[in-house]
């Protein structure tokens, strides 16, 4: 009896010692459906509070970014529609009236606070707050007619007072739009003095974007940003720990100009968001799956915190021209399929437009099925690297955008954004589920969960990342790399040879060839990478690195450049196009050309086939989907420790133009689970119905989905 008693006491003590489950904050409990109606460009109090709140609730939104400060021509202290100690003029306390109405209807009120665009006259009143260029002049021309302030100046205390005033209203969160540095700033006296104190030297120029001096400058601006975020969040949490704080984060592009480096800043935010759903201009040049690619990147960078994709309902740059319903549904679907919450930018002009019904439908879909969008994880076995280090330091073409106002001229050589977009499109069209990982993942996070990693011109790579990639391949991982991957260090300084030369089995000959306007590649031996490519001559990549084989198998070579397109059949050259080498238990495939850039420009079927061959051979698919066109995106996720699997199908099949006005449904889509994967039931969410489970001739579980319009979710339960 004594022994039993002791045993009971022992277990009781163990149970008491168990840590309590963490309490979830409101922003962690369910997917957010966030509206942002741009009232700051109009009369904020133009719609009665109850009517405005009811409109949002009736369209299925459960949260919002409320614009409560006037912003025509930029922000100042004259149009605060709330009580503030720093207000330059007393206006109607619209916020006090509105918060109660929104909360009655279950809407979480987060205040939109623009901290990167101020009226020129307001800047003139506070010259010591302004960002200063290298030439010593204040930043101007922000959104054509404004200025910007520096977060290392006393302006920060002005911001913190505004935060305190807003928090007193019982709001649920604060969203910072900005702050940002500019490509030519900030060289104000406060920044110069702070930099001098930290590094014992003067601030270097931003004109040279490589080497240790530029890296120190970027680190300084990022750490200044992080300090400002930390202090902002502390101000809010000291008033109410349930106030969410987050910002307009870094894009999938070169963030050196803005210093919005998500990995460094997310520690001080409660959510991580980015503008993955702002699309405009010539949409035929915009990746269909832009929101989903950004959502994948954010999931990697967020450290388990919720993510948000910011989308605009308008076809940019026309603020009052809404996208067609199918485009809106696809923006929404591609976001939620990749585990992010939705923020939708609207205007009061849109209230009565029929396109808004599509957003309301999607909001209701998520509200009804919220449990299927929380606590999920990716089951992808393939990863693509988005290298922010390369985007920031590479001497090739700049990526996507380096400043929120100015798009620089750029060469096509080594275009990082196009290379990533092309490789990701090739995998998406092959229906390969994949994650987007980054430099930090390569340097210090687990890689073994992936059977294959694709590196689209990850030109700038640290020694630490290179060492871990080598170890990954030696232990059985597989690699597909293109162009100048690992040829530069993590500050943009060119190495004598690839850091991954031993994996690639080639040596750099220190020359870029191109543009190859009408040239070819020639298969010189049979190989699984070339299966399905039957032509004797294949179109060449646009640019390529001239390399020499050093132990690699070379099944594909470039031909001798032609002087003209009708200059006869070209002979094969000694230059490898494709090099394959096994190291340890893994295989590395190196394509010497700008593979992704060529896919993005021409969608050549041979290139799409090679990418599919690499993925299928090196990373057998965790789920197979057939009888669908290549324009259907496949996302494979799980819940409940794998007991529930979720297949998201996003159908971008339009009528060969954009914006898409009609999606062609996919019918009788066949889904096959991998060998050994079981399920007791399957059903769909968008068009709710049970699905019949069967087994094919190989004993694998299959189902047939009758119809997929813009979006469908297939659920498998064990």
What attributes characterize this protein structure?
718 residues, alpha/beta, Rossmann fold, Immunoglobulin-like, nine-stranded mixed beta sheet, eight-stranded parallel beta sheet, 19 helices, 31 strands, 29% helix, globular
Textual characterization of the structure:
- By secondary structure, the chain is an alpha/beta fold.
- Among the domains are: 382-618, 3-Layer(aba) Sandwich (Rossmann fold), CATH 3.40.50.880; 624-717, Immunoglobulin-like (Sandwich).
- The chain is 29% helix and 23% strand.
- Strands 13-12-14-15-22-21-20-17-18 form a nine-stranded mixed sheet.
- Helix 11 (325-337) links the parallel strand 9 and strand 10 (341-346).
- Helix 6 packs parallel to helix 8 (211-239) and helix 14 crosses helix 19 (605-618).
- The chain is globular.
- The two termini are 43 Å apart.
């Amino acid at each position: 009896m004594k022994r039993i008693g002791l045993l009971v006491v022992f277990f009781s003590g163990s149970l008491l010692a168990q840590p309590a489950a963490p309490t979830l904050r409101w922003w962690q409990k369910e997917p957010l459906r966030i509206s942002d109606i741009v009232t700051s460009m109009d009369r904020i109090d133009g719609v009665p509070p109850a009517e405005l709140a009811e409109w949002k609730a009736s369209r299925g939104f459960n949260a919002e970014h409320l614009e409560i400060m006037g912003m025509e021509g930029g922000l100042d202290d004259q149009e605060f529609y709330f009580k503030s100690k720093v207000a330059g003029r007393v206006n109607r306390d619209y916020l006090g009236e509105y918060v109660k109405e929104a909360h009655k209807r279950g809407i979480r009120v987060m205040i939109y606070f623009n901290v990167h665009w101020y009226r020129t006259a307001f800047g003139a009143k506070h010259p010591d707050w302004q960002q200063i260029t290298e030439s010593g002049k204040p930043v101007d021309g922000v959104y054509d007619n404004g200025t910007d302030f520096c977060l290392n100046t006393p302006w920060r205390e002005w911001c913190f007072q505004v935060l305190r005033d807003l928090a007193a209203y019982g709001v649920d969160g604060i969203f910072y739009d900005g702050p940002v540095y500019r490509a030519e700033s900030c060289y104000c006296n406060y920044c110069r003095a702070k930099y001098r104190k930290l590094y014992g030297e003067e601030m270097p120029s931003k004109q040279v974007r490589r080497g240790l001096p530029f890296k120190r400058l970027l680190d300084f601006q990022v750490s200044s940003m992080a300090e400002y975020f930390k202090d902002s969040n502390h101000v809010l949490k000291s008033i109410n720990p349930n106030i969410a704080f987050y910002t307009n984060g870094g894009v999938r592009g070169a963030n050196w100009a803005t210093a919005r480096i998500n990995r460094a800043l997310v520690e001080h935010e409660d959510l991580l968001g980015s503008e993955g759903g702002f699309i405009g201009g010539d949409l035929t040049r915009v990746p269909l799956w832009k929101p989903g690619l950004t959502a994948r990147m954010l999931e990697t960078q967020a450290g388990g915190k919720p993510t948000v994709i910011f989308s605009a309902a308008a076809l940019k740059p026309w603020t009052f021209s809404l996208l067609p319903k199918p485009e809106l549904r696809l923006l929404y679907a591609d976001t939620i399929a990749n585990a992010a919450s939705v923020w939708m930018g609207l205007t009061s002009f849109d209230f009565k437009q029929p396109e808004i019904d599509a957003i309301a439908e999607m909001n209701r879909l998520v509200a009804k099925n919220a449990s299927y969008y929380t606590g999920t994880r990716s089951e992808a076995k393939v990863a693509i690297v988005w290298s922010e280090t390369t985007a920031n330091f590479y001497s090739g073409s700049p990526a996507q955008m380096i400043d929120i106002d100015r798009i620089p001229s750029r060469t096509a050589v080594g275009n990082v954004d196009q290379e990533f977009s092309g490789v990701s499109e090739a995998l998406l069209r092959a229906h390969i589920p994949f994650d987007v990982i980054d430099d930090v993942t390569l340097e210090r996070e687990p890689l073994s969960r992936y059977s294959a990693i694709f590196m689209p011109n990850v030109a700038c790579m640290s020694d630490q990342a290179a060492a871990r990639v080598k170890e990954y391949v030696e232990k059985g991982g597989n690699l597909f790399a293109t162009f100048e991957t690992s040829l530069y260090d993590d500050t943009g300084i060119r190495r004598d040879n690839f850091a991954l030369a031993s994996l690639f089995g080639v040596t750099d000959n220190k020359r870029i060839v191109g543009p190859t306007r009408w040239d070819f590649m020639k298969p010189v031996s049979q190989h699984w990478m070339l299966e399905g490519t039957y032509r004797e001559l294949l179109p060449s990549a646009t640019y390529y690195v001239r390399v020499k084989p050093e132990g690699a198998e070379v099944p594909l070579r470039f031909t001798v450049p032609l002087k003209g397109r009708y200059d006869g059949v070209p002979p094969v050259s000694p230059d490898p196009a494709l090099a394959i080498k096994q190291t340890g238990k893994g295989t590395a495939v190196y394509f010497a050309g700008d593979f992704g850039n060529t896919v993005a420009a021409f969608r050549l079927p041979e290139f799409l086939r090679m990418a599919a061959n690499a993925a299928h051979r090196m990373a057998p698919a965790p789920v197979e989907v057939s009888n669908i066109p290549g324009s259907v995106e496949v996302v494979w996720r799980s819940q409940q420790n794998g007991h529930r699997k979720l297949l998201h199908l996003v159908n971008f099949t339009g009528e060969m133009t954009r914006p898409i006005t009609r999606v062609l449904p996919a019918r009788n889509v066949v889904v096959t689970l991998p060998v050994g994967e079981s399920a007791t039931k399957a059903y769909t969410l968008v068009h709710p119905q049970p699905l019949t489970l069967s087994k094919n001739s190989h004993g694998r579980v299959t189902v047939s989905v009758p119809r997929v319009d813009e979006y469908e979710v297939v659920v498998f339960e064990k």
